[in-house]
Amino acid sequence: MGLFSFLKFYIILSIMIKQQNVKLGFALAMLTAVMWGIVPIAMKYALVVVDPLTLAWSRLGMSAIGITIWLAYKKQFPNLIMFKKRRRFILLMIAGFGLLGNFALFASAVQYLSATTAQVVGQTGIVIFMIASAFIFKERLRPTQIIGILVLLTGLVLFFNKNIVDLFSNMSTYGIGVWLGLLASVSWASYALAQKVLLRKLRAEQLLWLIYLICTVFLWPLASPSKIAHADATQLFAIIFCGLNTIIAYGALVMAMERWQAAQVSAITTLTPLFSLIFSDLFALIWPEKFAMQYLNILGYIGAISVVAGAMFATIGHHIWQPRKGLLINRKKEENL
Predict the structure, then answer these.
(1) pLDDT of 165-196, one tens digit each?
(2) Which of 229, 248, 322, 325 is a good FRET partner for 222, with 20 to 30 A between their CA atoms?
(3) Is the predicted pLDDT of residue 302 greater than 60, yes or no?
(4) Domain annotation covers residue 4
(5) Is 249 exposed, middle or buried (0-12, 13-18, 19+ CB in 10 A)?
(6) Rg for the chain (alpha carbons), in Å?
(7) By 3-state DSSP, what share of the chain in percent is helix, strand and coil, each rounded to 5?
(8) What angle in degrees, to the nearest 10, is found between the helix axes of 143-159 and 115-122?
(9) Is 192 a member of any domain?
(10) 223 near 162, Cβ under 8 Å?
(11) Angle, nearest 10°, between helix axes 233-259 and 2-46?
(12) Is 102 a domain residue?
């Protein structure tokens, strides 16, 4: 009886810990989405005084310092001998320059676009990554992924319904911003593909440390740190916030992945454009002299929601619906019969 009671207590305790981990994983994933939703707003304000390359360099530099301190505390620096293999070194360079390009191009896009538009365009990175994975890693695209991608692309058309002609007919500042955002997504997909392979040999924080160092070193000659000295108090706060945002968001993402399934975490992070939309309008209401309201027509709002829904369904749709078994809710009903 004593052993039975102990086993019962152990099982209950394990369930409670698992539930707590799931809740913490959800909270951390939500924190990542919120931080990513706010960062382009802060970037837009910081870009008044610094150029995109300097902003990208400061973000990556602060992140490199933050992770260096963390790895030193944990005594978990990676063994660099593994990169004697040419293939691994090439993949590390692809990942490093992929993230460097993403940060620099995204900051450039934010100069021309609203925070919401920049984040909506950024969701195309998921599509590019999934399609590229299918070709490079010989992975089959699930029906739910194909549906999600089609919904996302339809959402993009609806979101840009007022300006879609400008994207192809002439190179307005808006069109330049969108194309820079698309290039940033391609660059991110390159980083993600290389990261996917390297994570088989390294922990996420170890890989990010190496990538941040590569980005910081190569961006240094192109950055103009002296411009930061001309920032006023609020602009300096925005620059520092952008750097801390990167540390907090990616740190929360790594911890969320450790406590919750990667697909669910990824699904939560697809809410980023909606948080950008909410915070953009909120800041515009509170500080109208510093932040602009995001004006969308009804099709634009439907498009933004469709982009998020498509990205989310492409990520976790196979958990919700299967061609042979139907919707998750229907499967649960059948199991209870």
Answers:
(1) 666 666 678 788 889 999 999 999 999 889 88
(2) 248
(3) yes
(4) no
(5) buried
(6) 22
(7) 80, 0, 15
(8) 150
(9) yes
(10) no
(11) 150
(12) yes
Helix (H, G, I), strand (E, B) or coil at 326: strand
* Any domain includes 84: yes
pTM score, two decimals? 0.82
Q: Per the structure, how many domains does the chain have?
A: 1
| Distance from C-alpha of 156 to C-alpha of 109, rounded to nearest angstrom | 16
Give 326's strand partners.
Answer: 322
Q: Which of 19-28, 182-191, 313-322, 327-336 has the highest mean pLDDT?
A: 182-191
| Residue 87 burial (10 A CB sphere; 0-12, 13-18, 19+) | exposed
Stretch 127-138: mean pLDDT, rounded?
83
Write out the residue range of the structural domain in which residue 262 sits: 23-336
What is the reported pLDDT for 284?
Answer: 81
**Do 269 and 29 touch, CB atoms closer than 8 A?**
yes
CA-CA distance, 46 to 56, in Å (whole number)? 11
Of the spans 154-168, 206-220, 287-301, which averages the highest pLDDT? 206-220
Is 153 buried (19+), middle (13-18) or exposed (0-12) by CB count in 10 A?
middle
Type of residue numbered 25: G
Query: How many of the other CB atoms lie within 10 Å of CB of 263?
Result: 12
Question: Residues 29-81: pLDDT tens digits?
Answer: 888 889 988 999 899 889 989 999 999 999 999 999 999 998 998 888 988 88
Euclidean distance between CA atoms 266 and 37, whole angstroms? 14
46 and 55 in contact (C-beta within 8 Å)? yes
- Strands (DSSP E) contained in 256-329 are 321-322, 326-327
**Greatest CA span in the chain, whole angstroms?**
79
With a cut of 70, say whether residue 134 has pLDDT above it. Answer: yes
Please count the CA atoms within 13 angstroms of the CA of 135 that sit on its side-chain side. 6
Sequence letter at residue 151: V
